[in-house]
Amino acid sequence: MQKLAATYLVTVRSLSDMLLFKEVYQRCGHSTYRIFLSENCSWDEFEMAWKPLAALGCSYEQATKRLMSVDIPPTANIYQAYALLEKGEHNQMWDFEEAHCGHPFKR
Question: Are 7 and 71 in contact (CB under 8 A)?
């Protein structure tokens, strides 16, 4: 079983038998990006391009056939991860956008 780290803590409210999101209570240092795979990018090509990001400790969750959310843990070098995301975009594997950067920046 894979142990998942919290990317952020949230508060919720109960409504009947459901929990509804209320707010982000605490961020935990993770950064989140979205990848939109190009139409001409095969799954095998994506997996090859993903390997260096996985080596940094990054993970993804697939939303649709072409859209995925990327988690960059606080232990990963954000500059290396961002450069790999840019490389995939430059090679027309995907487009990406930042959802949240939780990593501190160098001065």
Answer: yes
